[in-house]
Write a structure and sequence with these properties.
Elements (H helix, E strand, L loop, with lengths): L17 H46 L4 H45 L14
C-alpha cells in the first residue's frame, strides 16, 4: 500500500491516503508525548525538591528564632512550590493530550482499514 494516490486531474498534487496521514500524525503525537514525559519527570523531581527544601528551610528558620525574614523566605518558597505545581499539572495535561491524539489517530487507521476489533468499546452505562 502506498501513501500517495495518482492525481485526480492533470496538474494537481497527489493526495495523501488517510491511513498514511493518520500514521504520520500518530507517530508525531507519540514523539511529542515521549518528549514531554521527560519534562514531566523533571518537574516531578523539582516539585519534590522544592517541597522538601521549603519544609526543611521553614523548620530551620523557625527553630533558630528568626523573625520576619524567616516568614518572608518561607512565603517565597511556598509561592515557588505553587508555581512548580501549576507547571507540572500543565505539563501532565500536555502529555495526556498528546497520548489521546496519538490514540485517536491509531483509531482512525483502524476505521480506514475496517479493523473494528482495533476500536475501543463504546461506552455503556452501568
Amino acid at each position: 500500500m502506498t501513501s500517495r494516490t495518482e492525481p485526480a486531474s492533470p496538474g494537481t498534487e497527489p493526495v495523501e491516503q488517510p491511513a498514511a496521514r493518520y500514521a504520520d500524525r500518530a507517530r508525531r503525537f507519540d514523539g511529542e508525548a515521549a518528549g514531554r514525559a521527560g519534562v514531566v519527570r523533571s518537574l516531578e523531581r523539582l516539585r519534590l525538591l522544592v517541597f522538601v527544601a521549603t519544609g526543611v528551610g521553614a523548620w530551620l528558620l523557625v527553630s533558630q528564632g528568626r523573625g520576619q525574614t524567616a516568614w518572608l523566605l518561607v512565603a517565597a518558597a511556598v509561592v515557588a512550590f505553587a508555581i512548580v505545581v501549576a507547571r507540572h499539572r500543565a505539563a501532565r495535561r500536555r502529555v495526556r493530550r498528546a497520548q489521546l491524539m496519538a490514540d485517536f489517530n491509531r483509531e482512525g487507521i483502524a476505521r480506514v482499514e475496517r479493523r473494528w476489533s482495533g476500536l475501543p468499546r463504546p461506552f455503556s452505562p452501568p
